[in-house]
Each structure stands twice: as structure tokens, then as C-alpha cells.
Amino acid sequence: MTPAYDALVLAGGAARRLGGADKPGVRVGGRPLLDRVLAGCRDARRTVVVAAPRATARPVEWAREEPPGGGPVAALDAGLRRLAEPAGPGADSDPAAPLVLVLSADLPFFDAAAARLLVTTLAAAPDAEGAVTVDADGREQPLVAVYRAGALRRALTRAADAHGGPAGLPLRRVTGELRTVSVPAGGAASFDCDTWEDIVTARARIREHGTVLDEWITAVKDELGIDLDVDTGLLLDLARDAAHGVARPAAPLTTFLVGYAAASAAGAGGGREAVAEAAAKAAALAQRWAAEQDEAG
Q1: What would the pLDDT profile of 94-116 be if each residue is shown by its tens digit?
Q2: CA angle 71, 134, 80 (to 5 degrees)
Q3: CB 3.0 to 4.6 Å from 15: which of 23, 93, 184, 235, for a disulfide?
Q4: What is the pLDDT of residues 254-264, one digit of tens each?
């Protein structure tokens, strides 16, 4: 079981290398970069985004650095202060989670598996104060990392006191004080979009043959507000059976009806199993249709 953690996403900054564009809102695969990052930390107990509030696919809390545009340490300070407060009116006063996942908002391929790897690595290293992703070039990425919240707060306070405040302070003045373990980046988890060339690369990568279906299904689930594991292979097999055993137009209609049936069952406690059960029934029916046609032929 993954240890409890909070997530802190830094979504400010001037994006000068993007010509001042609204970087968190730039779309990759039809989804804003910020929403892609939020999907990756969906297992967090609480998620705070440091930026001006905007519409997001997942519910989050908001914080703002002082002054706005004051840099990553000022943003980190604002986010940690927000996590130290109750989540909102009427919320319980449980303390913040002992671990905090810290991410930039420009990571199109950061996913829940990468988050779990960071969190479990730190949990298994009791003497470490952080687990930091190391990219393919061997560079540490302190904004693709998880830290022990208390140690991070203390390091930030010491650095800010010495600097006269957190604004304008280099991030490594804080994270460099911490004892960390390195976590090699899996896949493209640490790939960040600093330039338009990076955006073009990311947009091309999601359309690669081996990943395009997973990317598309994830995008549709986020767009529709569905948080359900989907067995893509199972549904593709069903579509094939319906197309071959009945008629080609039956494929999309059958998968829609299976989804509708699974959603109805999910209201009564179903989920992935409900999808599998409904798909199995529909596939068996399609095979019976095909058998009758073979007999008639």
C-alpha cells in the first residue's frame, strides 16, 4: 500500500521560453499540461496548486506565492503553508501528510506509477529526507520529487531566513540541504516542456503507435470525469466480436451499451469487474449470433 502523501504543484512562472504563454494551459493530447500533472498525482490525499485559480479536471486547493512571480521557493513556501491549514470550511484538522510530492506543472508524461515509485522509494529509506528523480542525462529534478514534509519546511525556513525571505531564492538552496536518494526516471516521467519544441515533441510522442490508445482513453476519462480502470484489450476484443459476429456498426454501439451497463452497476458498488462482466455477456451473445449465421450458411 502506498504511504499517504500530499501533492504540491508549482504552476506559476513567466514561461519566457514559451514567449510568455500560459504554460499550464497549453494542451498536449487535448488536455492542459496542468491537468495531465494532476492526473499523475490523483492518489494524493490533498493537492495544492500554487497559481491563480483556474478550471481543472480534478478538484484541488489553491495558494499564491508572495509576491506573485516570486520564484519556486516562494511558491513552495505558499504551498506548504496551505497544506498546514485545514482543507477548507468544515474540513477536519488532521495534520498534513508526512510526505509531500512536489511537481512542476509542465510534465506531460508524469503518471501515477511515477508518483508511487517516488513515494515508496522514500518510505523505504528511513534516513533519507527526499527521493528525487534523475533524468536520462543524470541531472536531479527537484520538482519531480517527494520530500519528508517536516524536513522540507525546516530547510526552507533556514534558507529563507539567511536570504531575507523566500522570494528570488534558488530552489537548490533548499533542496540541496536535504539527504536524498536518487530515482531514475522511468519512461518520460521527468520530461518537461520549457520550449515550443518540447511541446511539439510531447504532442508527437503521445501519438506513437504503442501508446496512443492509452493516451486517448486517459484523455476521455479525464474529460468525462471517470476514474475507472479500463481494460482496453477486453473492449477491443468485444468490438471485434460484435463487428465480425453481427455487423460492423454493432461494435461502437455494443461497447457503449457495455459502458452504460457497467456504470449502472458501479452505482451499486461495481467497477472494473462490472465492465468485465458486462463485456463477457455481450461477447458471448455476439458469438452466439455468429454461430447461428454459420449454421445457416
Answers
A1: 667 899 999 999 999 999 999 99
A2: 35
A3: 23
A4: 988 888 887 77
Is residue 103 left, alpha or beta, with left meaning phi > 0 and alpha meaning psi from -120 to 50?
beta
Q: 19 φ, ψ to 5°?
A: 70, 25
Which residue has cell 454459420? Answer: 294
Pull the grid cell for residue 260: 452504460
Spatial distance between the Cα atoms of 75 and 48, rounded to a whole number of angstroms: 11
